[in-house]
Write a structure and sequence with these properties.
Length: 161
């Protein structure tokens, strides 16, 4: 799964909402300000600049810019750290303030159906676009066998007889 697919699976309005929710202060606190500024191709990174860049950012994601997708997801998820902590706690994945060790083998926690269980548990408790982004981001980062999660998605067709 490509992380850019997770962004493209949400509506344009939901994507815009996620971008508008990025906190410049949190980017600076977590030392992501310069990274996102460079990756987003912005001379100055501020809320107005991000808002105006939304169509260009979405177009780059449509072109499968995975580096942008990674940095954008991290910037967005900083504003939803309560969601990140809740999901990691629910799944039992060891972490330190929402961050886990590089190379963590999470297969013992990400068992079959984990995406559905997380969605069922947190649907309605957190904004849906952020929840879907995090479920797919977690799959992209820790569960390389997972496909894009979309609630209510169609089940695979049964094999032909």
């Amino acid at each position: 799964m490509l992380l850019s697919e997770a962004f493209l699976s949400v509506s344009t309005d939901d994507f815009s909402s996620l971008v508008r929710g990025i906190s410049i202060g949190k980017l600076k606190t977590y030392q992501m300000y310069e990274t996102l500024k460079t990756r987003a191709h912005l001379a100055r990174l501020n809320t107005e600049g991000l808002r105006k860049a939304i169509p260009r950012l979405r177009a780059r994601l449509e072109d499968k810019d995975e580096d942008l997708a990674k940095d954008l997801a991290q910037a967005m998820l900083l504003n939803h750290m309560d969601l990140v902590l809740a999901v990691l706690g629910f799944l039992g994945i060891p972490h330190e303030n929402g961050f886990f060790a590089k190379g963590l083998d999470a297969s013992q926690w990400l068992t079959s159906g984990w995406q559905e269980r997380v969605h069922a548990e947190f649907h309605g408790k957190f904004p849906e676009p952020a929840l879907l982004l995090y479920i797919n981001h977690l799959a992209w980062e820790l569960d390389k066998t997972a496909s894009l999660f979309q609630p209510g998605g169609t089940a695979p067709a049964p094999p032909a007889a």
